[in-house]
């Protein structure tokens, strides 16, 4: 994904234009049983027009955050503001926030057109205008022919699009999506990802999207907020999340990552020297880590360089191949370091030299900028 | 292809074999008794077995004027064959035409002295015994009731009478069964409606409660199920009687000056039936409310529907199948209900089942009780099919 592009961390996110905060959480706490907090001290700004993804494993607090935004759950503490006014305590039906549900929640006793007209009826929109807007939105999702069908007569992908249309038809200030593609097969899911993304760009809507699928988050979002243990571990543009994970959890959760435990031996600006069980690794970090602290060094399998490069790369790992997996376009190797640690290496099939038979010895190189020093601690409750 | 069909045929045979015992059981112990009982409504065997010779002789009569002398002779010999025959014939004919019991009794008395008489003598003596034996109408009636099948009882069960070869609907005070059928429908409908009105909120609360609370509430609904229906009904009589707790409370509160008649009338019948039937409504309805995904409630709110409108437009339509299923069970059970009206109803609150029981156990007119049952069963089947036609598509749309 990133190749060997060597960049220092950006200060700004992916999109530069002046951002207006549409919605903000501050110091929000939520607990269902009064003991364990599902969401803890959450601060989050959602910008006008952005596509923000809340990504995390189940139980990380991402869905609860969405539910508080939709008005189905109320925070125990803290404030949530939308357009500058607090929405804590405002019932869901007055919030004017669109939502696409995981199982679509299309009403089975209504036709597609009736489903789409429902939010307009609730807002007292006249019949003529209702029909016109239903027609328009069906054109937007490219399903003009299904108006009179029942939701059960539609395919999964069609239902998904109608659910999307229903969330958009009343022109909400914010559209929430709760794992909307989870029920679709892989091919359709990838197609819908592009479609949702295009709709977002065309209509200029603000989207908050919840998923546990990291590749979905990386493909679709302007920004990704990685949730774990009720806290945001990192919120940044997809490439920052992938290339410069803030901590061990993010590094581990997003993509494959090799993580070696080590002790900081020295540092100079961003650059650190870490001793990982006998192998000295040069790596970067946004924060400075004190000499002698225990840290993790993370580096991606696909950033491995096979040949001895010129100019030389600082990190050389002498390994013994223990397992080789053929994956068509690339090879995945499990390799054992001299100290017993195991790392994964991903190399392009085309660039393959030698056959990397299990048991054979070889060397791989990593750029210092592709190795990241991470604190062993992650944000917890 | 042939292999496939053969495999499928083997599977078919195997599954048929598996359901065969159940099928045989149903056939022998369920369908056969019901069918044979229902066939009685059209059967003439009671008369043809009583007067076999006359039945055969009448089969050759053309129905014009009076039958020939041998028919009279056959009747004489049939009446002399057994004393019981005369009684059965008299009772059965009397049910069709009042006064026939006497006519038969007179013929029986005359027949005793005619054991060795010629056919001509038999005819003359019988007509002498009662002039009705000289009337073509009497013989026509007898011929009609000795055919292969008769519609008399099926017609009588809906108050239709054959008079001089014309069908006539009994009305006013003569009407007997139609008002009772209507009363049965009215009581069942009222009970169903009240069950829905009372049961819907109950089902709703149970479906929405936490599992712990829900199981306690469900227990309250189900406890009556565990009690004998007789005990339950007796308990209601105690509660509702003149000096029972309800009346005492009403009088103490000054709401009534004298004890109100709460039992042995329509009020008592409906009250007790609602109590008996309520679980049959609450259970399916509760299930259908529970089956509604939480996300529908959320989606309705999210799309701008305040709670009441969300209920009206989204939730209520989705509970209609459960409500319909429960209501249908209550209605069907109510229509065939017997014990509650018999115990806590007055004479004007008896439902059709009571009459079926009466004709089966006391009046021993099985033909009539079977005709009433046939109409009841037919009516219910028609109702089931109608509801499938009308409500089925509506429900399929929802589910």
From TrEMBL, chain A:
One of its GO terms (molecular function) is ATP binding. Residues 23-254 form the ABC transporter domain. Keywords: ATP-binding, Cell membrane, Membrane, Nucleotide-binding, Translocase, Transport. SMART domains: AAA. It catalyses: ATP + H2O + polyamine-[polyamine-binding protein]Side 1 = ADP + phosphate + polyamineSide 2 + [polyamine-binding protein]Side 1. Pfam families: ABC_tran (PF00005), TOBE_2 (PF08402). Its EC number is 7.6.2.11. Belongs to the ABC transporter superfamily. Spermidine/putrescine importer (TC 3.A.1.11.1) family. The complex is composed of two ATP-binding proteins (PotA), two transmembrane proteins (PotB and PotC) and a solute-binding protein (PotD). PANTHER family: SPERMIDINE/PUTRESCINE IMPORT ATP-BINDING PROTEIN POTA, SPERMIDINE_PUTRESCINE IMPORT ATP-BINDING PROTEIN POTA. Part of the ABC transporter complex PotABCD involved in spermidine/putrescine import. Responsible for energy coupling to the transport system. This is Spermidine/putrescine import ATP-binding protein PotA.
From TrEMBL, chain B:
It is found in: Cell membrane. Keywords: Cell membrane, Membrane, Transmembrane, Transmembrane helix, Transport. Its main location: membrane. Residues 181-387 form the ABC transmembrane type-1 domain. The chain crosses the membrane at residues 12-32, 180-204, 216-239, 267-289, 310-339, 364-386. It is a multi-pass membrane protein. Belongs to the binding-protein-dependent transport system permease family. CysTW subfamily. This is ABC transporter permease. It comes from Aminobacter carboxidus.
